[in-house]
């Protein structure tokens, strides 16, 4: 008789794959099945094909695009299959015309005008840090009002910056202020250093991801060869969740299969939900405990759409896409003059000017070549929250220049998320043979999805393989917050 634990993972995105991969290292302990209704693994980590002769690259990552140096577990997974993230100097810009525009590429009038408030924000971030449990939970809009920041500074600088990196759109004022502080200051989550003169440092180092479609494909075939039963195009229903085991039914979801596939009923010892919280709640339905209903029900999801296109006229009508002297503030120092000189040779990256951001476009040009003309660039415009569809300008994109449209289901980082969901995770994880993973358990980042999947596997008895002190600390923090478990290092820290 087999003593292996039968584990079913529901959802094959970054969290599900990380969980399966960690469990698959112990074939003597676990028999792993992973189920997803989609035809491929990766969840929100997807790539699309491009016409290389027209755009200069044959593919584009149209979901997750990149991360910072803190993405250690993500990068480790990439490297174990021969993929390498590529460094990029991040350029962002916000607003249109001289009164509203600012960027981290060169000094602008808006940054100059708000220089005192930028310095004050630095002091407030320190204040949030030291009074974290008290101030951190409040929504950003409350903190901005409490410390008497001007509407202009809040609406043109702080909120757009947070919205861009959390993808929270009009919900941004309701984001917990802990995230504002963490983005600048937390060693594990920091995207860049706070700059007291310009708010964002000049061109922080980020990394763009390799072809995620190929990477996830290679990862899935390797897991398959290690015995993980990956069932794509498959629907799942939970029939029973008892102390003896979990009974589930799976049905093939392939509309082309003739005759339609038969449902299969199986019993598993352990269940790991790696799908969105609302899907998990729906699947549990009457089997959910009141705690699960409360915690999972606290995650608020929004439907967003990305349109990948090459309509540079539309893009420029929304953003400032290139350096123009009228946008620039007077240069006051040598450093600022150098920034202006640099900006004059570059196109500024506007949110998602993918040709500027993703490395494959630069590689095709080669070193020292001038950037591609804007008309050949591939852009991605994200329209957030379909409840506000009326405000979207998506109809203004020239239809013949649209490459792809894709809908996404993403959670919002509302302040309630950090009052109800994140602190509640430890009370539902491990109950009734069920664990939860996914970026929604903390912050919407690929790295969190990976760590959450590894943590669920660890809690089931798989080993955490230390490879880097920083990564191990991040993992330990996640484990403590979401599972209420203290991680024991097998070796002391290197430093
Ligand atoms: C447009 C966009 C851009 C982004 N850019 C970045 C970025 O640059 N950097 C970054 O770090 N993060 C980015 N993110 C966020 C990042 O993609 C996510 O945090 C991460 O990929 C989530 O992984 P996950 O495994 O938690 O969830 P998902 O990737 O959503 O995976 C969940 C899986 O569950 C499956 N599923 C759903 N319902 C069911 C069901 N009923 N039964 C079984 N399976 C089900 C889904 O098919 C999916 O495969 C971006 C997200 C989007 C949408």
Automatic annotation (TrEMBL):
Pfam families hit by this protein: NAD_binding_8
Q: Which domain of life is it from?
A: Eukaryota
InterPro entries according to UniProt = FAD/NAD-bd_sf, Zeta_carotene_desat/Oxidored
Give an example GO molecular function: oxidoreductase activity
Q: What is this protein called?
A: FAD/NAD(P)-binding domain-containing protein
Q: What is the lineage of its organism?
A: Eukaryota, Fungi, Dikarya, Ascomycota, Pezizomycotina
């Amino acid at each position: 008789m087999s003593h292996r634990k039968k584990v079913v993972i529901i959802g094959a995105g970054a969290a599900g794959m990380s969980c399966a991969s960690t469990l698959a290292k112990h074939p003597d302990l676990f028999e792993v099945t992973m189920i997803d209704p989609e035809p491929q693994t990766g969840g929100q980590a997807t790539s699309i094909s491009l016409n290389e002769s027209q755009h200069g690259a044959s593919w584009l990552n149209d979901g997750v695009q990149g991360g910072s140096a803190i993405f250690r577990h993500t990068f480790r997974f990439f490297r174990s299959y021969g993929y390498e993230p590529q460094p990029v100097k991040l350029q962002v810009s916000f607003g249109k015309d001289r009164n509203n525009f600012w960027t981290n590429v060169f000094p602008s009038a808006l940054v100059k005008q708000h220089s005192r408030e930028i310095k004050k924000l630095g002091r407030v971030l320190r204040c949030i840090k030291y009074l974290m449990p008290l101030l951190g939970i409040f929504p950003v809009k409350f903190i901005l009002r409490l410390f008497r920041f001007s509407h202009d500074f809040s609406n043109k600088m702080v909120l757009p910056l947070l919205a861009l990196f959390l993808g929270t759109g009009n919900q941004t004022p309701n984001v917990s202020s802990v995230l504002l502080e963490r983005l600048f200051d937390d060693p594990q989550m920091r995207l860049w250093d706070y700059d007291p003169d310009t708010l964002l440092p000049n061109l922080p180092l980020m990394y763009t991801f390799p072809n995620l479609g190929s990477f996830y494909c290679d990862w899935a075939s390797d897991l398959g060869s290690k015995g993980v039963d990956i069932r794509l195009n498959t629907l799942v229903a939970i029939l029973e969740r008892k102390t003896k085991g979990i009974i589930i039914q799976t049905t093939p979801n392939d509309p082309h299969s003739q005759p339609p596939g038969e449902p299969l009923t199986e019993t598993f010892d352990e269940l790991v939900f790696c799908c969105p919280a609302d899907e998990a709640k729906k699947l549990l339905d009457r089997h959910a405990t009141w705690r699960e209903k409360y915690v999972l029900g606290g995650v608020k999801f929004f439907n967003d759409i990305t349109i990948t296109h090459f309509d540079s006229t539309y893009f420029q009508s929304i953003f400032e896409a290139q350096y123009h002297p009228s946008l620039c503030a007077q240069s006051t120092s040598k450093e600022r003059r150098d920034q202006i000189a640099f900006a004059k040779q570059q196109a500024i990256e506007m949110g998602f000017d993918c040709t500027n951001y993703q490395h494959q476009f630069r590689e095709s040009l080669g070193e020292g070549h001038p950037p591609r003309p804007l008309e050949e660039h591939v852009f991605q415009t994200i329209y957030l929250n379909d409840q506000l569809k009326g405000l979207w300008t998506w109809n203004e994109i020239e239809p013949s220049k649209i490459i792809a449209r894709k809908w996404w289901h993403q959670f919002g980082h509302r302040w309630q998320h950090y009052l109800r969901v994140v602190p509640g995770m430890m009370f539902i994880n491990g109950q009734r043979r069920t664990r939860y993973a996914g970026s929604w358990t903390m912050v919407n980042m690929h790295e969190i999805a990976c760590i959450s999947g590894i943590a669920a596997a660890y809690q089931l008895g798989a080993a955490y393989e230390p490879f880097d002190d920083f990564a191990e600390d991040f993992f330990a923090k996640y484990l403590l917050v979401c599972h209420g478990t203290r991680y024991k290092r097998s070796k002391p820290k290197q430093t």
